[in-house]
Amino acid sequence: MLASTVFMPPGSMVLELLPFKWEWHKLSMMYFNLTQSIGDIHHFGWRPTDVKYAVYKNDSSRFRYKDWFPGECHARECLSVQGSADVVVDLDAVTALLRSKVPGMLAGRAISDLAEPWPEAV
Predict the structure, then answer these.
(1) 105-109-111-113 Cα dihedral, nearest 10 degrees
(2) Fewer beta carbons below 10 Å: N end or C end of the chain?
(3) Cα–Cα distance between 22 and 44 in angstroms, integer?
(4) Is 27 inside any structural domain?
(5) Residue 3 placed within a domain
(6) What whole-number distance in Å separates Cα of residue 41 and Cα of residue 105?
(7) pLDDT tens, position by position, 70-100
(8) Number of Cβ atoms within 10 Å of the Cβ of 55
(9) Contact 31, 16 (CB under 8 A)
(10) Does the structure show a pLDDT above 80 at 2?
(11) What's the CA gap between 95 and 99, in Å, rounded?
(12) Is residue 81 part of a domain?
């Protein structure tokens, strides 16, 4: 549970895997905002940008919601379907992200030096 990030030692790193298209009023940034309020934890997010990285619980949910824009998905059913879809990780993308961040984290670089924009749901 990412709520436990408040107990991580200074300089730690979190990589949060976010569901495809799951977003509502920046809700996906809840734990990011928590770690940023502490101020000494590196926190990065990765979100799939292609439906091939989302595994919906059934075909009807996939068919109905895969093409919705995040701004259109504000009802409980849509948010639930998007939030409960499994995430298939693009290992190349996540490996590249980690390779670009871990050396700096281990070297003690500042949180602001390694910061990345939070991944948008598209």
Answers:
(1) -120
(2) N
(3) 16
(4) yes
(5) no
(6) 10
(7) 778 878 888 888 888 899 999 999 999 999 9
(8) 12
(9) yes
(10) no
(11) 6
(12) yes
* Six-digit token string for 45: 């997010």
Q: Which two tokens stand for residue 85?
A: 């879809």
Residue 42 lies in a domain: yes
Three-state SS annotation for 71-113 = HHCCCHHHHHHHHHCEECCCHHHHHHHHHHHHHHHHCCCCHHH
Convert the pLDDT of each residue in 34-76 to its tens digit: 999 988 999 999 999 999 999 988 888 888 888 887 778 878 8
Residue range(s) defining the domain that contains residue 50: 11-114
Sequence letter at residue 99: R
pTM comes to: 0.86
Task: Report the number of distinct structural domains present in the chain.
Answer: 1
Q: Provide the residue type at 37 as one letter.
A: S
Tokens found for residue 112: 């602001």
